[in-house]
Amino acid sequence: MARRNDHSPDELRRLALDAARRLVAEEGLRGLTVRRVAERIGYAPGTLYNLFANLDELVLRLNAETLDRMAEALAAAAACPPMERAAALVEAYFDRIEAEPFAWGVLFEHRLPAGTALPDWYGARLDRLIGIAVAALEPLMTAWPVLERRRAIVAMWAGLHGISTLAVGSKLALVGPGDPRALGRLLVSRVIAAGPP
Amino acid sequence: MARRNDHSPDELRRLALDAARRLVAEEGLRGLTVRRVAERIGYAPGTLYNLFANLDELVLRLNAETLDRMAEALAAAAACPPMERAAALVEAYFDRIEAEPFAWGVLFEHRLPAGTALPDWYGARLDRLIGIAVAALEPLMTAWPVLERRRAIVAMWAGLHGISTLAVGSKLALVGPGDPRALGRLLVSRVIAAGPP
DNA sequence: GCAGAGTTTTGAACGGCGTTCAATATGTGC
DNA sequence: GCACATATTGAACGCCGTTCAAAACTCTGC
């Protein structure tokens, strides 16, 4: 069989990624298998290997789209008056995660085999995200020297990831009071206000 | 076959966890399988199911020990003059992670099947860890109201986890300058110094 | 219409996985 | 020695990711 002509390769990739996203939303990374994706889109497992090098690449593509969605949410939130901007970004960040907690979890749960590096197109997504945060927050950090601002923003960024990761894995509730959003607000507002050491 | 009497059940669990830790150190979570652990300790795969309910429990036990080691490292670092304590804790934290980066990664990479809660004995480990940080740092946070201190410490704690997770998965280098330790120091020192919003 | 070339799709096959469980080998107490 | 209890085994099951020769399809040139 070949060229069923139902779908172009790009359409097939779209179908596969949508099916994968749905599987992840339902059961997390453990529920995402090549065979199940294939079944959901009505093709044989082998077909997926024409579209992606292997399951790892499919997961990376899925994660890239998750990052893109976050980037759009943050960019939209950044378009507000400077005074409210930091708070708006934090809210948008957690809104996005709560909309798709499993997909966000996969971002950290998935690791490439030892020795395999993340592809460039994936790194570009991370860059874009941090770039949005830097552009939005830098002007607010009047207490910081210009050259230190990016570093501080990366620290906040990583800090938010930590909070959200622990929250998604329900390892945060065990440890203390306060919802993740409050912790995120705390972290970001304190670092912005504090100024350098 | 039965009662080979080479090892008591507790000794067997010890052997299995040691083998598991070595496998993780070599290849990460992907390299940790029931069959390989069994092979390394010279028993059949089925035997491991007398010692652990399943592979998930084995991983949780391994993670619990990883948390215990971190707790000991932090407790040791906290026994220093208050002025140096925050910095000492951050250094000890990253020292520990660098000693076993793969094992630390497994802490976040591993998720239980959807719907399964973390067991109590695991939560106790998390509690002990955060308790050590709270006891060590609370006295330093003179700018914070007493009731807010724990919340702020949890936020820092989660923030450090974010930094270390991104660093271990090499998703941090892609995004900005500065080594993880510097970001950790920045986060902790700024929150401690800042005082509440 | 048709033949052949060129692709896409298939599905069986492979080795490995977690997990179960009847059968078995080894102890212990009599 | 013998029966009881238990720790251990390893084959079996159903799943997994991945490969690849064969098959099914489309397209081209006639």
UniProtKB/TrEMBL annotation, chains A, B:
The record, for PROSITE patterns, names: HTH_TETR_2
Q: Where is the HTH tetR-type domain?
A: 10-70
One Pfam entry for this protein is TetR_C_33
Q: Does the keyword Acyltransferase apply?
A: no
Known DNA-binding region: 33-52
Keywords, sorted A to Z: DNA-binding, Transcription, Transcription regulation
InterPro entries, from UniProt? Homeodomain-like_sf, HTH-type_TetR-like_transc_reg, HTH_TetR, MT1864/Rv1816-like_C, Tet_transcr_reg_TetR-rel_C_sf
Q: Name one GO molecular function term.
A: transcription cis-regulatory region binding
Does the entry feature the keyword Transcription regulation, yes or no?
yes
Reading the lineage from the top rank, the first entry is Bacteria
Q: What is this protein called?
A: AcrR family transcriptional regulator
